[in-house]
């Protein structure tokens, strides 16, 4: 699933429908890919508007932020901090491959330079780069499906040439609602490095999905980042001209 | 005149012990000077080499606007021309082409900002010690996989990776004004024993770097070594202006690393001080010796002056004695100095991993011989001896025969 | 006592020879003192400057801060803490500093800088920051009428960002609470040269830095000064004892904080001893010459002495004592002459032809030093070597065969 904007790619499966692949699938493979697609399309809407709470816990500090976000496909997104008051108005705009930050306190728009791209976003365990990444995960990973009575498990192995630091991922999905509960990232030696946990399923309009996502880096004990979607709307009136530097600077 | 010479030689031979000691004094002065010079030169060279030949190179060529801000966009575009000019210079021993910029390297455990350097494996091996610093895995191979990447041991530890592990490198692509990210697999790990290099650099193949940075065939830096590394310290070497073009500038390490240059200027200064001290002490010793020899012969001088020898002849006699002693001393001193220097040079002085102002003395120090030790230094010693002999000579010439004849030995 | 009298009388007997011998030893002593004085004097200068300017004689930091500095490892920077610190014996002054990185933005470009939060008043008393301000003026601690704080920026930062006095400097970093630290500061002054150590620094008033990085009432270290940099380690020990109860704080002497600097200086000092060895060697040779001469001259006399029953041992000691006496007298004379010269060196020093920079410290004068060791060590060395060198002639004297000796009478 591509979570709109912020929690985009690494947590995400392919956007593109997996059509036109030419390898001979076994029945299991086809089912796996179908499931992958389905979950992938879960968060993928044409556009969205959401308000969420992000909690960050590290060994050195903990904080909680309320964010409002708008997104159009994968290319455009605008995120604004609503709370805490000290940072209210700090916003990030993404247009295709460029990113800007607006800092209301000093009233400046700063283009995010490459050196800051891999840095953490707002102190969380997500990186600026996490927001920017795109790619077809079906093309990038080989997928194998297994199941138990209540769960599907998708094991993804990175192809040799995929540009990613992860060797493999595992996604556990509940059978009855086809929603993910857990996604684990492995390095190439098979060691689990981080885990994303999904919970609190809710329905917004037509869409049902987990509204709480918790990202835990397994090599930094005590750290975690948790995102809770407070509200979400899909299929709203949103065009690419909403995503401008002007709007970035607007304080609302 | 030849009588004076004969007399001088005979006088010297008369008191062999004293002559020997005087010769010893003068020769030791020269020997010590030779050794010290050889030592300091070797120390200087080792420092320079440790600094330059580890990685930076004796000298570098950049785009004129590059160094001010290390702006990755300011590349050298006429690469072939540059190479031709370099190869045409007999002083240039080897060169390496580098495309470099700041970027991030990510592993599953960590993201770290580094300097990403694209090099041609073979050219680089001829300039820096990268190839020799490999501790695990393989050095870069131009014909090998484009996923090759080399990083320092400490950096590998920080990223928690080992040979074969995935790394994603991100740099700014100046053509698309975008971030370019590519996958690499750790193919080799090096250790240059310098925190700056071992934690801060990663090496990939040159064409990969050029493609990622979007600079076409351009490069950022040409590092090259000279046949005589001590020349690289000369700020206004004609070579630099010959290699310069309107677009590029060539500079030796003294301009590129001014701190190091300052330290070395200090050592040159030390040699001067040591030399001065040596001379003063030696001069005193020579004066002492000459006086003693004159003193012994006061009666004799009294006699020859009384029978009509000119004062200037006496003066000359002393000077010539000094001169002859000195010549003998110079030969002995040169031999001694050369011998000690060569011997210590063969054994070598190992400073272990001592750091002198941030530059590790990575090599064994071998004092070396050079021409000026056998031309300028002996000349200086000769002058010193003659000057030292002046006072005694004047004194001898001024002996009053009547008084002198009173003395009996 | 008889021996001493004899020795004295012998010395006075041949004045010229005595004078010349003494001249050698005197010259050696004088030169050694001057060299030691200037060398130690310049080290003192450099180290004193360095420790005052940057590290302090000792530093109080959070445990492990020195090994792996981090924004989060802080020390209290309250006025209570300061008062308590000052109340400790041997603490002369102290100043707190915050150190962290940030991205600086000027008109359009960004540039990574090191941000240093300083206590404006204390810093001016302790370090030389005020003197390094080349353009504009030093900082004020308070914000201006519009609520902006001032900053000092390094020359390289100023150039890169195109900033001059009165312009706005934007800093962006991460606060200790994870928030995005961002703020505007006015440029009040530009510090240092573009290649200097401070070139990429930005100095802010401490309170501004504390609110920027969200480190209320904290800093990263206290630079503590005592009377003399030599007492750094003792100061650190003392402070550690005081800090014992408070969790997580430690004090380290400047030698630990700036290990590399310290090692470089130590290595230099050791190198200096080589040249002293050389000087002494030459002095010895000169002395050997004269002492031997004097023994030879008095062969007949010694023969008589032995014939009438003087023991060989007595003769041996006679020679040694003579030489020691000469050495001591030379050193005393040397001492007298060198005192005024050293006074000049200490107070005025001599100007170097090219000012040098060592570890970021510019030296254009070499100054001398008043220290006991500068006067005592050379004396001990000269007297000691004289004694040693006189052994050979003394042995010869002791072994004289009376019959042969008296033949030369």
From TrEMBL, chain A:
InterPro entries (UniProt xref): LolA/LolB/LppX, Sporulation_related, TP_0789-like
Keywords: Lipoprotein, Protein transport, Signal, Transport
Residues making up the signal peptide according to the UniProt record: 1-24
Top-level lineage group: Bacteria
Gene3D superfamilies according to UniProt: Lipoprotein localisation LolA/LolB/LppX
Ranges where the Uncharacterized protein TP-0789 domain occurs: 75-250
GO biological process, one term: protein transport
Pfam families: LolA_like
Keyword Iron attributed: no
Quaternary state and interactors: Monomer.
Record-given protein name: Outer membrane lipoprotein-sorting protein
From TrEMBL, chain C:
Alphabetic keyword roster: Cell membrane, Lipoprotein, Membrane, Transmembrane, Transmembrane helix
First-listed, main subcellular location of the protein, grouped into a coarse class: membrane
UniProt subcellular location: Cell membrane
Residue ranges of domain ABC3 transporter permease C-terminal in the record: 275-400
Membrane-topology descriptor: Multi-pass membrane protein
Transmembrane segments: 20-40, 273-295, 315-339, 379-398
GO-annotated cellular components: plasma membrane
InterPro entries linked: ABC3_permease_C, MacB_PCD, Macrolide_Exporter_MacB
Sequence ranges assigned to domain MacB-like periplasmic core in this UniProt record: 18-240
Pfam families: FtsX, MacB_PCD
One GO MF term attached to the UniProt entry: transmembrane transporter activity
Family: Belongs to the ABC-4 integral membrane protein family.
Protein name as it appears in the record: ABC transporter, permease component, involved in lipoprotein release
Species this chain originates from: Reinekea forsetii
